[in-house]
Amino acid sequence: MRDKLINEMKEVFAGDKKRIRHTLAVLDYAEQIQAVEGGDALVVTAAAILHDIGIHEAERKYGSSAGKYQEIEGPSIAEEILKRYNVADDATRHICRIVGSHHSAKDIDTTEFRIVWDADWLVNIPTDFANADKEKLQKIIDKVFKTRRGRQIAVESFIKKAETKNQ
Fold it and tell me: Which alpha helices (H) appear in 107-159, and where do they start and end?
């Protein structure tokens, strides 16, 4: 299933290497976090692969890749893909809720959502906060991370790098 969903994502992204790399990095972190935090592996894997699936449609319809538009467009595309592979209805609903909330965290707080949320943040922090100092990074980590393992990876990846950068 994992490989099939990756191929579907690549097809939707039509050679958009930046977004494909981003998605695969989110998937890698999500799998690392899920190994420690638990949760439904299928839901985590599928949601990580499909979390940004609505981005091109958002750009086409709204001229913007803003998170709110991805959350509008992504779930129906994800649902269509999941139905092709006969993913159970309850899992499909859960995955689509994650896709539809992955920027806003609205109305969802499941283990699987928290894992995908943290994985996406782990990939985005280096570019979104490239010039942040250790204190700013620590505030971001304390504020946004929702899993213990996600927080640990963030501290290991960003705080320790900031400490060595400032030595």
Answer: 111-128, 134-144, 148-154
Convert the pLDDT of each residue in 152-162 to its tens digit. Answer: 999 999 887 66
Q: Is the pTM of this model over 0.85?
A: yes
Residues 40 and 38: their CA atoms lie apart, in Å, by 7
Domains of the chain listed by start with CATH number: 2-165 (1.10.3210.10)
Half-sphere exposure of 48 (CA within 13 A, CB side): 35
Within the chain, strands assigned E span none
Q: Looking at per-residue confidence, does 121 or 15 come out higher?
A: 121
Whole-angstrom distance, CA of residue 106 vs CA of residue 125: 21
Dihedral, CA of residue 9, residue 98, residue 68 and residue 23, to nearest 10 = -30
Strand, coil or helix: what is 78? helix
**Integer Rg of the chain from CA:** 16
Distance CA 138, CA 69 (A): 29
Question: Residue 11 is encoded by which pair of tokens?
Answer: 């097809």
